[in-house]
Design goal:
Low-confidence stretches: 1-23
CATH topology: lipopolysaccharide transport protein A fold
Strand content: over 45%
Radius of gyration: 24 Å
Helix content: 10-25%
CATH architecture: Sandwich
CATH class: Mainly Beta
Order of helices and strands: HEEEEEEEEEHE
Largest sheet: 10 strands, antiparallel
Number of strands: 10
Amino acid sequence: MNLFNKSIIIGACLFSLSAPFALAEQADRTKPVNLEADSVTVDDLHKVSIYVGNVILLQGTMTLKADRIEVHQDGEGFNKATAFGNPVYFRQKQDNSDEYIEGYASRLDMDTKQNTVLLTGNARLKKGADELRGNTMSYNTATEYFEVKNDPNVAKSPGVSPSRVHAVIRPKPKAGAQPPATPLPLQPAGSLNPDASK
């Protein structure tokens, strides 16, 4: 393993340690899936539905917006979704927290049985002020395991700089720490000449 690949794994580990992502609100799984689109085609025999045009998928706290979403079902209902867009937008509340996580990519593959989400093409994930970017990003919502990769094809193109994984990790305030004090406003002192007051 070369140093570049190690830095990707180390960066992803640091990101997950400093900003733990409990990505899925577990109660969302029991909520109905609501979809809106400009048009839909349904193949009931194969349990596949294709939604096209300003598509919005809602399930509990999860929102997924895309140009096109293909939904696959099994005997238990919603199973997999593949979304395409410019970009696809994903937002979901974290379990046992009031914080949300947001993701953007050209394509998003979600498998509710395997607890996996794969963001492909200019993938970006945000939680508060922390951000992670790469060409592809996969995570397991049950184990909270992340993997972020660069685009190996960019590195092979002549005259093009290799793509890199990028992470922004903001320091977290210490428990019980007070915010910095606001400076007192300046007041006019009157006259600086002591004889002027006589």
